[in-house]
Automatic annotation (TrEMBL):
InterPro entries: MCP (IPR002067), MCP_dom_sf (IPR023395), MCP_transmembrane (IPR018108), Mtm1-like (IPR045315). Solcar repeats lie at residues 21-142, 150-234, 244-339. PANTHER family: FI19922P1-RELATED (PTHR45760), MITOCHONDRIAL GLUTATHIONE TRANSPORTER SLC25A39-RELATED (PTHR45760:SF1). It is found in: Mitochondrion inner membrane. Belongs to the mitochondrial carrier (TC 2.A.29) family. One of its GO terms (molecular function) is 2 iron, 2 sulfur cluster binding. This is Mitochondrial glutathione transporter SLC25A39.
């Protein structure tokens, strides 16, 4: 099946500005890509968290970051080592390394433990990814075919704007989820909490943490799509392929993801600090009024304490996580779009009026 789809990608005729697929089909393709990415990356982060907890046990009220390959999520430890309802350290042995952790977690807790916490994070991660990727394709094609603009800057603009939209839509949900996890609120208590927050600080309080998220994710997306389209075109030309194959998309996604991750790493460090700060401020009632550090003040503080190297902390772990996540996501997405293009061609041959 993969070879058939790949061959179609190389032999297909132009199908118009949207690539011969509908927005709904684009959503299905991006949603499938999000699921595959999460299934691959989540075990890596579960093991990372367990290793961190082994070195420095989580104390009550402290936060840790969890990533399913698509989004970062703040989790607040309620009862020390147990942290969240889904995160429970039941493995009694000591981990000597990553591989050892994989083996012992599977042996003592079962293979399902490697995907702990995946369902609740997918509730937000998949819709955000669907919005992001679908908007990117739609906006890119609108600029190229609808407005007649050409040039390498089109993916850069489309990537930045689509990411900005996705972050803005999801940001209030992220804050609400953080509040629910930090205080174990019921939906009724949550409604009162949100109303109180809005009454005190206005509607903009629902977008708390939006700034540092935008500072990292928007430049990352702009750089990612710019490099992805560029690398994909170069590799396709070198392979004498009219359209990118699955392998070309995979390699292009990994390279562009790595470049974007490295260049935006300082903003990622700041965003991590702000996320942890926001989560801990919501842990105990009354602490939410504590003065929060501004993004630039926090960046200057990190540089003063640890130097420029401090702004690039976590370089290797971020690249190791981002590169395969980007590669899996984009190649699965492109594969899905190609599958629907092939399906639409066959349907058009059978019923020319259907497309």
């Amino acid at each position: 099946m993969v070879h058939e789809i790949t061959n179609v990608m190389a032999e297909k005729e132009p199908l118009g500005p949207l690539g011969g697929i509908t927005p709904l089909q684009q959503m299905l393709a991006s949603g499938t890509g999000a699921l595959f990415t999460s299934l691959f990356v989540t075990p890596l982060d579960v093991v990372k968290i367990r290793l961190q907890a082994q070195r420095t046990p989580f104390s009550k009220g402290r936060c840790f970051l969890y990533c399913n390959g698509l989004m970062d999520h703040v989790y607040v430890c309620q009862n020390g080592t147990s942290c969240t309802p889904w995160y429970r350290t039941r493995t009694p042995t000591h981990f000597s390394g990553t591989l050892d952790a994989f083996v012992k977690i599977i042996r003592h807790e079962g293979i399902k433990a490697l995907w702990s916490g995946l369902p609740p994070t997918l509730v937000m991660a998949v819709p955000a990814t669907v919005i992001y990727f679908t908007c990117y394709d739609q906006l890119r094609d609108f600029l190229r075919f609808g407005m007649g603009y050409q040039g390498a800057h089109i993916p850069l603009i489309a990537g930045a704007v689509s990411r900005l939209g996705a972050v803005t839509v999801i940001s209030p949900l992220e804050l609400i989820r953080t509040k629910m996890q930090s205080r174990q609120l019921t939906y009724g208590e949550l409604r009162v909490c949100i109303q109180s927050s809005v009454a005190q600080d206005g509607w903009l309080s629902l977008w708390r943490g939006w700034g540092p998220t935008v500072l990292r994710d928007v430049p990352f997306s702009a750089l990612y799509w710019f490099n992805y389209e560029l690398v994909k075109q170069r590799l396709s030309t070198a392979a004498s392929a009219e359209e990118a194959t699955f392998t070309i998309s995979f390699i292009s996604g990994a390279i562009s993801g790595t470049v974007a991750a490295v260049l935006t790493l300082p903003f990622d460090v700041v965003k991590t600090h702000r996320q942890i700060e926001l989560g801990e401020m919501q842990t105990v009632r009354g602490r939410s009024r504590k003065r929060r550090s501004s993004t630039w003040r926090l960046m200057r503080r990190i540089q003063a304490e640890s130097g420029t190297r401090g702004l690039f902390a976590g370089f290797l772990p971020r690249v190791i996580k981002v590169a395969p996540a980007c590669a899996i996501m984009i190649s699965t997405y492109e594969f899905g779009k190609t599958f629907f293009q092939s399906m639409n061609r066959e349907e058009k041959k059978i019923n020319p009026q259907s497309i």
